Structures are given as structure tokens and as C-alpha cells.
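Private note to self, pasted from the team thread so I don't lose it. C-alpha cells:
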């Protein structure tokens, strides 16, 4: 069962929203993680590469900020097998490719700009996620 954490969830949402607005206001860029990482992996060392590396480093190092603020690292438990996680990663990669973006780009940035394409993509993400959870938990029983 998933734990109810309203304060942590609200804090995370505020930070994600702030990062998206700050990136758009300062560089005119969308904070879509798949696009940020894709641009980072092209290995063109230019000014565009620098902000992408800083953005990803901030995501990777954020647990250390949490440790400094609270004195402990977040508890993380992954109730799935490594094989299921790898399969899910490939499916997410395919979805990002076919959907021309990820949940952060469409769901956070696109919907806030009232993009019809992003609204449709986010509705598709959410319906698929709900269906997947139902299938995995109640039909397959994993």
C-alpha cells in the first residue's frame, strides 16, 4: 500500500513547479525531463549542455539536500523485480518517443500552457497508469 504523505507531496510539487517556471523564465525552455536528458546525451559541449547537466545534477543530488534538512535519507522501497523495472523502463522510453515527450513536459509544462496536445497526452498517461495499476494489482496480482 502507498503511504499518504501530503506535506512531502506538496513540497515536491512546489519545487517541480518552481523549477519549471524558473527554466521557462530564464532560458525559455520546457522542463521536460526526457528532452533535457536527450539533449544532454548528444554530448555537444556548449552552453545548452551546461544547464542540462546542472538540471540533471540537481535531480540526482536532491536526496543529499533532503539528508541535510532532515538528518536522514528518504525511505525507498521498490516492491517489483529488476526484470519488471527494466521492462517498465523500456515501455516508458517507447511512450516518451511515441508521445513526443514525458509527463513532466506534457503534464507540468504543457498543461499549464493549455496545450491541447499536452492535455491529450496527459489524459492518456493517466488512463494508462490507472489501467496498469488495476491490471497489475487486481488481475495479475503482482
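Design output:
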Amino acid at each position: 500500500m502507498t503511504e499518504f504523505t501530503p506535506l512531502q507531496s506538496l513540497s515536491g510539487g512546489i519545487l517541480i513547479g518552481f523549477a519549471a517556471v524558473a527554466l521557462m523564465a530564464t532560458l525559455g525552455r520546457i522542463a521536460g525531463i526526457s528532452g533535457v536528458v536527450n539533449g544532454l546525451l548528444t554530448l555537444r559541449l556548449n552552453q545548452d549542455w551546461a544547464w542540462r547537466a546542472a538540471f540533471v545534477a540537481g535531480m540526482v543530488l536532491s536526496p543529499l539536500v533532503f539528508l541535510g534538512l532532515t538528518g536522514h535519507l528518504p525511505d525507498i522501497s521498490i516492491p517489483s523485480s529488476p526484470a519488471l523495472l527494466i521492462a517498465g523502463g523500456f515501455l516508458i522510453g517507447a511512450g516518451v518517443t511515441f508521445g513526443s515527450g514525458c509527463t513532466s513536459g506534457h503534464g507540468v509544462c504543457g498543461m499549464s500552457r493549455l496545450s491541447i496536445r499536452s492535455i491529450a497526452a496527459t489524459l492518456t498517461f493517466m488512463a494508462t497508469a490507472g489501467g496498469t495499476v488495476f491490471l497489475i494489482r487486481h488481475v495479475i496480482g503482482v
